[in-house]
Amino acid sequence: MTTPTRKPSLHSAEHDRYFSTVPVGALLAELATLLPAGNLLTGKEDLKPYECDGLSAYQRLPRAVALAETEAQVIAVLKACHQAGVPVVARGAGTGLSGGALPHEDGIVLSLAKMKQIVRIDPLARLAVVQPGVRNLAISEAVASFGLYYAPDPSSQIACSIGGNVAENSGGVHCLKYGLTVHNVLRVRVVLIDGEVVEFGSHAPDAPGLDLLALFIGSEGLLGVVTEVSVKLTPKPQSAQCLLASFDDVLKAGEAVAAVIAAGIIPAGLEMMDQAATAAVEPFVKAGYNLDAAAILLCESDGTPEEVAEDVARMQAVLAHSGAIEVRVSTSEAERLKFWAGRKAAFPAAGRISPDYYCMDGTIPRKALGTMLSAIATMEKKYGLRCINVFHAGDGNLHPLILYDANIPGQLQTTEEFGAEILRLSVQLGGTITGEHGVGFEKINSMCEQFASDELRAFHGVKSAFDPHGLLNPGKAVPTLHRCAEMGRMHVHAGQLRFPELERL
Amino acid sequence: MSEATIQGFRERILARQPLRIRGGGSKDFYGNTMSGDVLDTRAHTGIVNYEPSELVITAKAGTLLLDLKSALAERRQWLPFEPPEFAAGSTVGGMVAAGLSGPGRLAHGALRDYILGVTLMDGEGRVLKFGGEVMKNVAGFDVSRLMAGSLGSLGLLLEVSIKVLPVPVAEATVRIPMNERDALTAINRWAGQPLPITATAWLSDTLFVRLAGADAAVKAALPQVGAGGTAISAENAPWIALRDHAHAFFKGDAPLWRLALPTTSPALTLGTPLIEWGGGQRWLRGEHDANHLRALARSHGGHATRFRGGDPAIAAFAPLDPVTLRLHQELKRRFDPQGLFNPGRLF
Ligand SMILES: Cc1cc2nc3c(=O)[nH]c(=O)nc-3n(C[C@H](O)[C@H](O)[C@H](O)COP(=O)(O)OP(=O)(O)OC[C@H]3O[C@@H](n4cnc5c(N)ncnc54)[C@H](O)[C@@H]3O)c2cc1C
């Protein structure tokens, strides 16, 4: 996404704490002494690259950007900000898609991108200890010679940082079988807002007490700053094969997904693209997709060659039985990668065919895939915008990409309304507004529809247990009750509207 | 949800007396000494939703684990973390609160990895719902998983949604004579290879390895793993005995200690252990000096639990460092401000 600009003015209605009256001058002077020369950015031009994350529809400049190189510097920066009462937004690679790393206008951005050492690889114990700025793919590359890899593979894996993955609980196309970040991280080292260092999790199978590691993963930079991550490494499967199935009807494709699972198969990957999506990627990557198909499924098996052969035969039968008009099986590694290339290029392809696109991230029960697709088709007409659909179908996680042009006045707003309707329907179908991209700044209003005020209060409680003054990434992930009341958003509960207990403050 | 039962729970909570939350009582022995009046969850029972093709089951907390498992078995699905039952009455709520996993922990992950959603009652009697029934959900903090292993310290579980998986098509167990050091080396080496090993156990110079998965995968791996060993019954019985502590190793009243260690930790020169989870879980029987054991576990990056029996004056769990303890106390205050639920049982 490029160029659209809209100051996130909603912020002023939030009744989160205001920080605009907190003086930062003295803090900036102090930070300059705590960091190596050149690691505190304050000039407008220097701050510009940090004004947004991967969701560039929302932009704002922070007061400064601190580039930490060591944990000691992270501690020093947080202590200083804590003392000054100034908000801090942690930032990894800035590829987030929900505005999670969007700066706070009265605060500083703490970048972990320079902390990119791989601290230790232990092939026998199948783990790697890395700094937060290490890129997801860099871990797999570093351990490849041991026949190991780090399983979660977000499409952004060349760029995104492991610290960001932890903060978002990121997934990838293989997480149906191999799990999300939360299933593949053993331990994190975290600096709390007051500068205290703590470790959650363990290199042992568990740690005493509450599972704070699980609570921390996916906490979107609200609870602490990650300075070290121990990841679990997985043996590389001996072989993998991918099936490419074409359907003349999206509903049939949706039903085929459920049928594969019902047959007792857990594919390594199970992805779906609709016709609009294949049409967008095919000219660009030439993956060999059937452009007449209303939808395609990519269905992968990995394991020993014997296991893969067995799975592939079973999946082939199920897909044919589900009404696939064509099922192709990759016959070489090159062909398998070609099948995947189209799927992996979906976002860039959307960017090629439209000035801007807006990626949604709801998750729904698999059985509702068809309902959702029909509803999106209706919404396209209602809002007068096109939407191409790529789904992590195996786990019901949807990425409808709404195509728009930010330079046309009002179109971003229409797009947001379109997106919000998809999210509302996701909740109504028994799902969630975000499967892997996080709430961030973007979906904060939709949170009011997914959760009632009592749950939101519980989230505020968790937040205040870690960060009593609300200095870490304020205004993200969890809305205030006041915001929900003011936005007039009502808690939607699986299929019906429940009249909310929302306080009108 | 049966409103009357829920209201009954709420009234107990609003009476503001310490409560000892209890399902079937199969894990009464686990954790620090308990106080408070028993709040029995067993009236709150039933499977709320089970859709095999969605790979999820939702059940009320008082549902018998046995009932849940037989519902899954009918559709050839299971709980791959193989939760211990210890006694016939164990409930789904107790299983989640205890957070324990069985032999399958090695390959399939722990109980917490399978928790998708919970409904709980907090210390003010409010019903709160977190997570849901879908596989991927990052909206809000992951309070659901926080409940796994919380031993009732934060709230009364009412309902849980758990991810389930298909039962592996094929399974085989081999027994290989091997000393402790060689066994630890072998299982760590195997774990780094794409082999379908789903459980290991070592005791008395014998290593047991379970292979499971696709028929072809098990057949192909057997010669590689089982060289020098004997295939024993295709049945899962030995693993069930280990899981439920029905095995002879667990008999008798001697204190039972559980050490959770990085799998590559060396053989400890302490008693005669039973080693599971590829080296990650090591059991010891008998009187051990708690401080010594804990220091030793810590020196390897793990921790020691007085799992069953022994001196009740000795803390069941390894002490938390001051910052972690503070976070525990702060969280407790948010969910259970009056400190009603299972005081002291976990921390
Ligand atoms: C083309 C494209 C494809 C993508 N595909 C996927 C996909 O397949 N699956 C998926 O899950 N996501 C995907 N994403 C989203 C994104 O890449 C992930 O959310 C990623 O984890 C973000 O990492 P990052 O380092 O860029 O984090 P950032 O964007 O810098 O930050 C994200 C959040 O993490 C916090 N944070 C960052 N570092 C730390 C730290 N060290 N300590 C505490 N908090 C921290 C920030 O405050 C922010 O809230 C995609 C994005 C793009 C642009």
Descriptors:
heterodimer, A: alpha+beta, Uridine Diphospho-n-acetylenolpyruvylglucosamine Reductase, domain 3, Alpha-Beta Plaits, 5-stranded antiparallel beta sheet, 18 helices, 35% helix, globular, disordered N terminus, disordered C terminus, B: 347 residues, alpha+beta, binds flavin-adenine dinucleotide
Please outline the helices and strands.
The complex is a heterodimer of chains A (505) and B (347).
Chain A: H1 25-34, E1 40-41, H2 44-47, E2 64-67, H3 71-84, E3 88-91, E4 108-111, E5 118-122, E6 127-130, H4 136-143, E7 148-149, H5 162-168, H6 175-178, H7 181-184, E8 185-191, E9 197-201, H8 212-216, E10 225-232, E11 234-235, E12 239-247, H9 250-262, E13 269-274, H10 275-285, E14 295-303, H11 305-321, E15 326-329, H12 333-344, H13 346-353, E16 356-359, H14 369-383, E17 387-392, E18 397-404, H15 411-428, H16 444-450, H17 453-466, H18 481-487, E19 492-493, E20 496-497
Parallel strand pairs in A: 2-4, 3-4
Antiparallel strand pairs in A: 1-2, 5-6, 6-10, 7-11, 8-9, 8-10, 12-14, 12-15, 13-14, 13-17, 16-18, 17-18, 19-20
Helix pairs in contact in A: 1-3, 9-11, 9-14, 10-12, 10-13, 14-15, 16-18
Chain B: H1 3-14, E1 19-22, E2 37-40, E3 47-51, E4 56-60, H2 65-74, E5 77-78, H3 92-98, H4 105-108, E6 115-121, E7 127-131, H5 143-147, E8 156-163, E9 165-166, E10 170-177, H6 180-191, E11 197-203, E12 206-213, H7 215-226, E13 230-232, H8 237-243, E14 256-260, E15 274-276, E16 281-285, H9 290-299, E17 303-308, H10 322-335
Parallel strand pairs in B: 1-2
Antiparallel strand pairs in B: 3-4, 4-8, 5-9, 6-7, 6-8, 10-12, 10-13, 11-12, 11-15, 14-16, 14-17, 15-16
